[in-house]
Task: structure prediction
Amino acid sequence: VVRFGKKGKLAPRFVRPFEIIEKVGRVAYRLDLPEELNGVHDTFHVSNLKKCLVDPTLQVPLDEIRVNANLNFLEEPMEILEREFKKLNGVELPSLK
Result:
């Protein structure tokens, strides 16, 4: 199962192995997810699945995963790191990083 909430290159990509209940269509599978993940849809495209995790240390414990009830992600800026002005058609526009 692909990441739930952590962003970035170093975020864990897979949680743990789950049993496949049935094949849905040509490229999707329904998984048997535990009650802790009841807010997550149980049908996944094959590109989001991996056959097996051999190394258990790579698995993310389910208690670290938090699924918000409304499943929305809000990202709030902490500070403005850099400000530039770019010219576009003779008008200077601020660009923030």
The chain has no helices and five strands. Residues 3 and 9 are 11 Å apart (CA to CA). The chain has a mean pLDDT of 74.
